[in-house]
C-alpha cells in the first residue's frame, strides 16, 4: 500500500517534503509546488531535488504527486482567469517534469454560473492548448464533491472532458473519498459498485491517484469538508476497506485530513494501531 500525506515544501523544498514524510512513516507524498495565494512560484532549482530524491529512495518513498494551485480554473467564463490557468499549467508541467514526478492533480474547475456544458468545453480547450502529447506525466482530474459550481462531480463529466481532449493518453483521474461520498457515490456500502461504474464510464486504467479523507458531512451532502480518518461519516471500517482493495494497491493514496494527525492516521490504516489520540 502506498500511503502518504499532503506535506510542506517550506524552506528546503522537496527535502522538507521527504523529511516530513519520513516522520509520518509514509511511503509516498503530495506537495503543492506553489502557493494557493498566488504570486510567483519559488524557483524549482531551489527544491534540493537530487538530495531529496536520494533520501526518498533510501526510505522506500515512491511516486510522489503534485497538486496544482487552486487558483487554476480552466472552466471559468472569464478570459483572464482561463488564460492564467493555461499559463500556470504550462509552467507547472515544466517544473514538475524537472522534479521527475509522474502525476499532477488538478481540480477540473468551476463554471461560475456559465453552465456545466460550457465548463466542460473550456476545461478541454485549456488542456488542448497546453498538452503537446510528449509529456512524461499525467494530468489527473480530481473528482469533486458537488459544491458550488464545480465541474467533475459525476464520473460522466470527467469522461466528457477526457473525450474532448486530443492527447487523452496524458489524462488520468484522482478520486477523493470525501468528495465521492458527498457527491452521492456510496463508497461506504458499495465500493465495488463504484469501481464497476468507474470502469464503465472512465476506465479503471485511468485511476492513478486517490485522496483518502473522511468527511464532516453526511452522504450526498454536496459539501467538501474533510475529516480525520474514522471521525467522519465514512468511518474507519469503510476507509480501511477502500485502501486495502486490490485496485488501490499500486496507486499513491494521499491524506488531506485536518489537525496534523498524519503519522497516527497512516499507522491506523496500516493496522499498526487502533486508536487516534484524543485531541482538541
Ligand atoms: Fe484537491
Ligand atoms: Fe482532494
Ligand atoms: Zn476536498
Polypeptide structure, described:
- The chain is of the alpha/beta class.
- It contains 9 helices and 12 strands.
- The strands form 3 sheets. It has an 8-stranded parallel beta barrel with strand order 1-2-3-4-6-8-9-12. Strands 5-7 form a two-stranded antiparallel ribbon. The chain has a two-stranded antiparallel sheet with strand order 10-11.
- Helix 3 crosses helix 4.
- The longest helix is centred in the N-terminal third of the chain and has 21 residues.
- The radius of gyration is 18 Å and the shape is globular.
- The two termini are 30 Å apart.
- The model has no long low-confidence stretch (mean pLDDT 96).
- The structure holds fe (iii) ion (2 copies) and zinc ion.
- The site of one fe (iii) ion (FE) has 4 residues, from loops.
SSE diagram, text form:
Blueprint: E1 3-6, H1 14-23, E2 28-31, H2 49-58, E3 65-67, H3 79-99, E4 103-106, E5 109-110, H4 116-130, E6 138-142, E7 150-151, H5 155-163, E8 171-176, H6 177-182, H7 191-201, E9 207-212, E10 214-215, E11 226-227, H8 236-243, E12 253-255, H9 262-269
The structure holds fe (iii) ion (FE) (2 copies) and zinc ion.
Kindly report the spatial arrangement of strands forming the biggest sheet. Answer: 1-2-3-4-6-8-9-12
Largest sheet, strands/sense/barrel: 8 strands, parallel, barrel
Radius of gyration, CA atoms, in whole angstroms? 18 Å
- The count of helical stretches stands at 9
Query: What series of H and E elements makes up the topology?
Result: EHEHEHEEHEEHEHHEEEHEH
Amino-to-carboxy terminus distance: 30 Å
Strand content: 15-25%
The shape is globular
Bound molecules: fe (iii) ion, zinc ion
Average pLDDT metric: 96
Helix content: 25-40%
Low-confidence stretches: none
Number of E-type strands:
12
Summing up helix and strand content along with how strands pair, one would put the structural category as alpha/beta
Amino acid at each position: 500500500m502506498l500511503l502518504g500525506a499532503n506535506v510542506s515544501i517550506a524552506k528546503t523544498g522537496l527535502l522538507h517534503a521527504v523529511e516530513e514524510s519520513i516522520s509520518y512513516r509514509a511511503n509516498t507524498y503530495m506537495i503543492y509546488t506553489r502557493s494557493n495565494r498566488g504570486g510567483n512560484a519559488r524557483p524549482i532549482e531551489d527544491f534540493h531535488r537530487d538530495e531529496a530524491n536520494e533520501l526518498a529512495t533510501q526510505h522506500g518513498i515512491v511516486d510522489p504527486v503534485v497538486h496544482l494551485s487552486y487558483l487554476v480554473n480552466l472552466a471559468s467564463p472569464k478570459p483572464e482567469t482561463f488564460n492564467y490557468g493555461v499559463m500556470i499549467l504550462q509552467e507547472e508541467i515544466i517544473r514538475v517534469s524537472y522534479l521527475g514526478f509522474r502525476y499532477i492533480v488538478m481540480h477540473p474547475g468551476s463554471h461560475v454560473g456559465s453552465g456545466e456544458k460550457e465548463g466542460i468545453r473550456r476545461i478541454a480547450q485549456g488542456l488542448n492548448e497546453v498538452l503537446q502529447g510528449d509529456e512524461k506525466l499525467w494530468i489527473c482530474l480530481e473528482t469533486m464533491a458537488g459544491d458550488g459550481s464545480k465541474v467533475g462531480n459525476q464520473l460522466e463529466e470527467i469522461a466528457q472532458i477526457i473525450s474532448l481532449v486530443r492527447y487523452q493518453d496524458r489524462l488520468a483521474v484522482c478520486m477523493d473519498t470525501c468528495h465521492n461520498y458527498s457527491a452521492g457515490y456510496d463508497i461506504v456500502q458499495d465500493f465495488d459498485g463504484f469501481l464497476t461504474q468507474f470502469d464503465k464510464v472512465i476506465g479503471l486504467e485511468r485511476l492513478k491517484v486517490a485522496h483518502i479523507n473522511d468527511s464532516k458531512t453526511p452522504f450526498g451532502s454536496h459539501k467538501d469538508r474533510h475529516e480525520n480518518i474514522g471521525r467522519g461519516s465514512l468511518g474507519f471500517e469503510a476507509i480501511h476497506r477502500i485502501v486495502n482493495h486490490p485496485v488501490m494497491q499500486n496507486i499513491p493514496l494521499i491524506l488531506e485530513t485536518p489537525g496534523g494527525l498524519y503519522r497516527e492516521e497512516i499507522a491506523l490504516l496500516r493496522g499498526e494501531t487502533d486508536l487516534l489520540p484524543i485531541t482538541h
